[in-house]
Amino acid sequence: MLILECPCCGVKAEETELSPGGEAHLKRFGPGSTDEDFETYMFARQNPKGVHFERWRHAYGCGKWFLAARCTATLEVFGTYPAQTTEPPAELIAKIKARRPDWKGWK
Amino acid sequence: MRRYSVFAIAREALRFHSGWEKAWRSPEPKKQYDVIIVGAGGHGLATAYYLGKNFGITNVAVIEKGWLGGGNTGRNTTIIRSNYLQDPSSAIFEKARALYETLSQDLNYNIMFSPRGLLMLAQTHHEVRGYKRTVHANQLQGVATEWVTPEQVKKLVPMINLHGPRYPVLGGQYQARGGTARHDAVAWGYARACSDMGMDIIQNCEVTAVRSANGVVTGVETTRGEIGCKKLGIVVAGHSGVLAEMAGFRLPIESIALQALVSEPIKPCIDIVVMANTVHGYISQSDKGELVIGGGTDGFNNYTQRGSFHHIEETLRALVETFPVISRLKMLRQWGGIVDMTGDRSPLISKTPLGNCFINCGWGTGGFKAIPGSGWAMAELVAKGEPGPLAAEFDMWRFKEGRFIDESVAAGVAH
Fold it and tell me: Which pLDDT band holds residue B349 (cuts at 50, 70, 90)?
């Protein structure tokens, strides 16, 4: 059972309390963008077997969106952080690198 | 290959079963093949089989990371149906269903195809309208499905509770020639036929890199050495994204765990397949008497082949509502498979940005039923280098061009 700590309200919530929202840090392209940009935004996903940055909503709690770093192969959670950012915090990346030395980096 | 027959059984019975030969060879990999198929599941083996049977290409290796048929081929709920709404989907799934009808004879291997009938329950007015629309579409496509009333549903499945606590049964969509087959036997039968044609099936051989020169594939590196090839087919379901990364392109695919479970064996109580998509559970009874139950997918990406516990609870709650008589039944086993979900819930049978490299994936929660049709279409794509009529619509560029084959809302399948 997956347990994530909501960085907004501090509650340790298990997955039935949360709604998954897919890959995090997607860049949405504005008017005038190419078909490739929009396809990438809509459909292309990293889908790694390993470290994955993703969006979650504390649906049956505070209702806020937040982001999490999780291993898709083991379900190990490296950490959660607020959604108001365009890239993962440096200390979280350092923590993941310590846990997964052969990890290639977040993007 | 010595053929299986009633005479073979009699002959072996007389000599204490000492003469059965291995169903397929396990050779060392050669240095070079015309075609390498990565993934010895149903789809990969079917691709190899139809490459040999339809196109005479037999210098083929099927490479498998684990053991043959040990991925989703051995993890599904064995349901076969073709009652899809969109024309390209119903064409390829109906081709597959039709091939299943005679597959035991074609392969000389009993795959236990059982066209016992498949019923999708409509439990909301939205579903009633959706299934009636699909039935009409199927009639135009030449797929035999029909709308049945609640009274007919009760006749087909006497143990059903038509007046469920949450959702009454308002009718159903019935495909009389849908059913089940023995999933392992499908992989084994294709493997035996491929091996008989001289193809090499190489198990315990994981691909670690894809080799290319000037934008054209030249071979693969594996845990058992480097193997060259002129053409490469990637048919690895849940791990498609991993292989695609090796080949240098990205796929519109996310990998998610889907669960299934079986109950303890009981006396025959249900002789068709029933899918209840509103309450989210589907059920059939195996020849051993176990109820085979399909559950839901996890909401988040993962490769754990396990699945979240609460989905079991939701699935069983749905089934107990629909079939109260099974409420005391114990569950024997539960497992998960990694399904590869595309944006429109339809598969990819496609050329790729890498020359002579082809991909067949994205079958999501419904790949088993498609195995023969998928192999047929993929073999045509690999052999000719261009898709035939079955595969034409399923290319990977449809997402850029907005030509979705939108089954996520249309088919009513349990996602």
Answer: very high
The domain of A7 spans 3-25+32-99
> Are B203 and B168 part of one and the same domain?
no
CB contact under 8 A, B254 and A45: yes
Contacts of B71 by beta carbon, 8 Å cutoff, 6+ apart: B39, B41, B236, B237, B238, B337, B338
Domain assignment present for A107: no
Q: Does position B410 have pLDDT exceeding 80, yes or no? A: no
Which residue carries 């066209």 as its tokens? B115
Total tally of structural domains belonging to chain B: 2
CB count within 10 Å of CB B375 equals: 28
Reduced to 3 states, what is the DSSP secondary structure of residue B148? Answer: strand
- B272 and B393 in a single domain? The answer is no
Contact A19, A6 (CB under 8 A): no
HSE of B189, CA atoms in CB hemisphere, 13 A? 26
Of B346, B340, B363, nearest in space to B408 by CA: B346
- For residue B84, give its domain range: 31-109+183-252+344-401
Least confident piece of the model among B38-42, B297-301, B335-339, B405-409:
B405-409
Residues ≥6 apart with Cβ < 8 Å to B223: B204, B205, B206, B208
Within-domain flag for A52:
yes
Q: What is the ipTM of this complex?
A: 0.91
CB contact under 8 A, B241 and A48: yes
What CATH number has the domain bearing residue B137?
3.30.9.10
Contacts of B304 in chain A (CB under 8 A): 72-75
pTM of the model: 0.93
Query: What residues form DSSP beta bridges with B256?
Result: B339
**Pairing state between β B281-285 and B291-297:** antiparallel
For A80-90, letters b (16+ CB in 10 Å) and e give bbebeeeebee
Residue at B408 is within a domain: no
* Count of structural domains, chain A: 1
Q: Which CATH number fits the domain that encloses residue B53?
A: 3.50.50.60
| Predicted confidence (pLDDT) per residue in B24-34, tens digit | 999 999 999 99
Cα B60 to its chain centre, rounded Å, is 22
Q: Do A75 and B308 touch (CB under 8 A)?
A: no
Of A16, A42, A43, the CB nearest to B310: A16
Q: What is the pLDDT of residue A89?
A: 94
